Amino acid sequence: MGKLGKKARKFAKKNLQSVLKRKRKLKSMFKKKGSKRDEQDEAENLQEEQISKSNGRDLESENIEDAALDAVFSDESDVVEDDSESDGYLSEDSGCAYLDGNGSESNQDDMNVDNIGASELSVQNREILLELAGKRKKLKRLEKKDPEFSKFLESYENGLEKLRDEENFSDEDNTSDDGTQNPSKGSAILSKDKLLTSSALNTLCQLVREQRSISALTSLLNGYRAACHCGTEPSGLLDVDSCCGLQDSKTFSKILIFMLQEADNIFRGMLGISCSSCKKETILELKNTLKWKTMKPLIKSYLRSTLFLLNQVTDSEILAFSLVQLRASIIFFAAFRPLLHRLIKIAVHLWVTGEGCLASHSFLVIKHVASVFRSDCFNSCLIKTYKAFIGHCKFVDPVSSKHIQFLRNSFIELCSQDVPNSSSKAMVCVEQLAKILQMGLRAKKKEAVKRICSWQYTNCIDLWVSFISANIQDYDLKPLLYTIIQIINGVAVLFPGPRYLPLRLKCIQWLNNLSSSSGVFIPVASFALDILEYKTGKDNGKPGKDFNFSSSVKLPKHWLKSRNFQEKCVSSVIELLAMHFAQWSYHITFPELATIPLIRLRKFNETTTIESFRRVVKRFIDQVEQNIEFVQRKRDEVAFSPKDHQSVESFLQFEKSSANTRFTQYYKSIMEKAASRNLVMNQKISSMLQKKSKRKKQLLPNNTLHGGANNEVLEERKVDLSIDDGRDGKRVKKRKT
């Protein structure tokens, strides 16, 4: 093929694919200077984006996962670690190394030097570790080749241990500087390789009680630590056979009970602190004294062992007993901040997961810590309890609803200790609720709507509604009140359908509670009357199965066509309107307030074909009309004008205090019927749940585990659990057998 002509070569340079590809590469390497018009357009686009972000309309950048309810607080107390170097047994000589059962230093035999990062250790340390690892390998080879050499090493280490023990005993004086007597050189002191018998335990207890012997107390604390660190089975039952240093289960239970009962009195007696003293300043003043330097390691060992016991045991009675005894020693935690944070964490966990007596005692510990340490630990207690409540209330059933109600009431009691501080935290949480609701109303995405129509969101609203209702009379919580009202109105507007009837009923109840506690008028009649317009099935539908509204936020579809759904709608509207009107039945504006609701109720009474509904609605209309006539007649008798606010507020106050009007009596009868109806419904549902649980138990194999150590502790612990009610200083005692 011959050469291309001049015109053909020109065409190839301009239009061939390889040439065009090369041109595109060159263009990407060099940036063209944009025109002024393009620069203006880019500036305008940037300005529009900034305005849209400032208005909160940047929907793409918003992520619903970032708006978690428990992500509003950052609690850094979990990061605090214990300041101690080890958790070993107490030693009289601080320079004595802790030895294991064979007498050799407790180091790892198989040390992998390659896993040590270069960033963690310096070059010099790595060289030393490599040299030590090489020598250790040589010693192991010698032990394998020459067994007599290994026996020589063991005898040499045993001799060193005896020398250390003799030095420790010789350094101890008969009496200490604070006047407490110490046992002689040959007294029984518990170490990790010695067995503590029942008779030795009785002797040690007597020495501590009568002579305040520090050496005997040290031995007891070592034994107590051994008991607390006993190996546990997967079931959580204590296994005394795996516990070194204790003879049997009786010794185990005796030392646990003695230390838990007597440790606080012993420490207070040795330090000269009165039993009634509960101020942290008492401990802080003793920090520089010789008494405290002597007792500090003993107190710390007791506190750490008890906290470890609370993490190990799962029996609720042992946990409750330990918490009651530990609550008396709260002031000693003032000198050990890391242990204090650990105590709060354990108490919050037991408060959330425990039941009955255990949950109550755990909350008393949290409340006592918050009251003793005040601003130092109140925020930590508040944040941890709030996060625990939010994490625990994601799912609600008829069984767990009572426990969640207890958690809510106890959290409000904790907040009431420092309402100004709690209200600032509450405002942060309520703003987070508003943010999630705003996303749901604006975007209406499935994830956002799901998060709002959830137990976690509704329980959070219920928590702060209860807090506001309990404290608004004594504190200025109006900003918090108005914000939460807007959130509840938004939730009611977002879910108008019949399937969300339980959620709508909760919203109306919240608004009624806020209105009655604050004295602020909140219009709820329109939300309640909208329920009567639900048309989901025929008027003569079949009765459905019993359904518990208190444990659901959304109804199943098949229940909407039942007769029970229509009855629930009518009865709920009457109850909620009666509650709303009862609050304002003595107000001078009641005739105007009830006019529009009466019009809508008459319309429903004319259109419905069910006689039972007509009868209930007609009676309610008659009672409201009678109260309107009563208020109108009293209003015509007064001589003041509507501008006289003081006279308006005092209108019918005498009749309101007596509560003898017909509408008030009618309202009480409505509430009594509703309470009895709910009680019957709960009994039916609980009986159904019991039958289901019995069937499951019959299907499961009967594998029960019995722990001898737990039974010993429970049988021998015949002590009084004293609960301080915090009001008159009296101690209420309950005998545990």
UniProtKB/TrEMBL annotation:
<dbReference type="InterPro" id="IPR005343">
    <property type="entry name" value="Noc2"/>
</dbReference>
<dbReference type="GO" id="GO:0042273">
    <property type="term" value="P:ribosomal large subunit biogenesis"/>
</dbReference>
<protein>
    <submittedName>
        <fullName>Nucleolar complex protein 2 isoform 1</fullName>
    </submittedName>
</protein>
<feature type="compositionally biased region" description="Acidic residues">
    <location>
        <begin position="61"/>
        <end position="86"/>
    </location>
</feature>
<comment type="similarity">
    <text>Belongs to the NOC2 family.</text>
</comment>
<keyword id="KW-0539">Nucleus</keyword>
<dbReference type="Pfam" id="PF03715">
    <property type="entry name" value="Noc2"/>
</dbReference>
<feature type="region of interest" description="Disordered">
    <location>
        <begin position="163"/>
        <end position="187"/>
    </location>
</feature>
<feature type="region of interest" description="Disordered">
    <location>
        <begin position="26"/>
        <end position="113"/>
    </location>
</feature>
<feature type="region of interest" description="Disordered">
    <location>
        <begin position="693"/>
        <end position="737"/>
    </location>
</feature>
<dbReference type="GO" id="GO:0005654">
    <property type="term" value="C:nucleoplasm"/>
</dbReference>
<feature type="compositionally biased region" description="Basic and acidic residues">
    <location>
        <begin position="714"/>
        <end position="729"/>
    </location>
</feature>
<dbReference type="GO" id="GO:0005730">
    <property type="term" value="C:nucleolus"/>
</dbReference>
<dbReference type="GO" id="GO:0030690">
    <property type="term" value="C:Noc1p-Noc2p complex"/>
</dbReference>
<dbReference type="GO" id="GO:0030691">
    <property type="term" value="C:Noc2p-Noc3p complex"/>
</dbReference>
<feature type="compositionally biased region" description="Basic residues">
    <location>
        <begin position="26"/>
        <end position="35"/>
    </location>
</feature>
